[in-house]
Design a protein that fits this description.
By secondary structure, the protein is mostly helical. The chain has twelve helices and no strands. α1 (2-26) runs parallel beside α7 and α6 packs across α7.
C-alpha cells in the first residue's frame, strides 16, 4: 500500500519538477540580469495591484475606487477588471516586497498553472503521462504565456486557465451520464472572469460548439435539451 501511494505521489511530483525546471530555463535571462520587464499592460495592471496592496497594508478597503494608484487616483478599475485577482496580486506584492520578485514568482505561477491545467485536460482524455507532460511543456512555450513572461501581457493568465474550459467542453461530449457539471463550469468561468474579461468572452464562444454537439450526440429528449439550454443562457447571458 505504501509503495502504491508513493508511486501516485511521485507520479504527480515528477511532472511538476519538470515544469519548474522548464520555467527556470524560460526565465533564466531575466534571473541572470536581474531586471524587471515591462510591456503595454504593465503599468496599468501594476497600478491596480499596487492599489490593492496599499489597501491591504493600510486596512482601507475600496474595491470600487482606486485610491493609491501611482498613475491616477479615484479611477474605477478593479471593480471592472476583477477585485479578487487584484487583491491576490496585491497580497503577493506585499509578501515579496519588490516588483522584480513579484514578476519572477508570478512567472512561475503562470507556467505551473498553464502546464498543470493542460495536463489535467490531457489526462482526462486518456493521454499517457509522459506525452501529457511533453505537450504541457509545449503549451506554456507558445501563445500568450511567453508573452506574459517577456512583456506582462495579461492574456497569458487567460491562456493558462483555458484548458479547464476545454475540459468542461470535452466533458459535454464524452460524459453520457453527466455531460454538464454546472458547479465545475461555474467555478472555472467565475475564476476566468476575475482574471481577464476578454478571455471570459473567448471561453463562452469556445463552449458554444461543444454545447450544440452535446445536445446532438446524447439525443436527450426535448425537455432535457431545453433545460440545458435555459441553464446555459442563464449562466452566460
Amino acid at each position: 500500500m505504501k509503495n502504491i501511494k508513493w508511486e501516485k505521489v511521485w507520479g504527480v511530483v515528477w511532472s511538476y519538477l519538470v515544469f519548474i525546471a522548464v520555467t527556470t530555463i524560460m526565465i533564466w535571462p531575466q534571473l541572470k540580469i536581474g531586471v524587471f520587464t515591462s510591456g503595454a499592460d504593465t503599468f496599468f495592471h501594476s497600478a491596480r495591484f499596487y492599489d490593492a496592496a496599499m489597501q491591504i497594508h493600510n486596512h482601507n478597503f475600496s474595491f470600487f475606487q482606486s485610491n493609491y494608484g501611482f498613475q491616477q487616483s479615484g479611477r474605477v478599475i478593479n471593480a471592472l477588471y476583477g477585485p479578487g485577482f487584484a487583491y491576490l496580486n496585491g497580497l503577493i506584492l506585499l509578501m515579496v516586497k519588490t516588483w522584480f520578485n513579484y514578476q519572477i514568482l508570478t512567472d512561475y505561477f503562470i507556467c505551473l498553472l498553464g502546464a498543470g491545467t493542460m495536463m489535467c485536460l490531457l489526462q482526462y482524455v486518456k493521454i499517457n503521462k509522459p506525452l501529457s507532460v511533453l505537450l504541457s511543456i509545449l503549451f506554456i512555450n507558445i501563445g500568450m504565456i511567453p508573452s506574459y513572461i517577456n512583456s506582462n501581457t495579461f492574456n497569458g493568465w487567460g491562456q493558462a486557465w483555458m484548458p479547464l474550459v476545454l475540459l468542461c467542453g470535452v466533458r459535454m461530449i464524452i460524459d453520457k451520464k453527466r455531460p454538464i457539471n454546472w458547479i465545475q463550469l461555474m467555478v472555472v468561468m467565475s475564476v476566468i472572469i476575475q482574471i481577464h474579461i476578454l478571455s471570459t468572452l473567448m471561453a463562452v464562444f469556445l463552449l458554444i460548439p461543444f454545447f450544440i454537439i452535446c445536445l446532438c450526440i446524447h439525443k436527450n429528449d426535448k425537455k432535457y435539451g431545453l433545460s440545458y439550454l435555459k441553464q446555459f443562457l442563464e449562466l452566460y447571458v
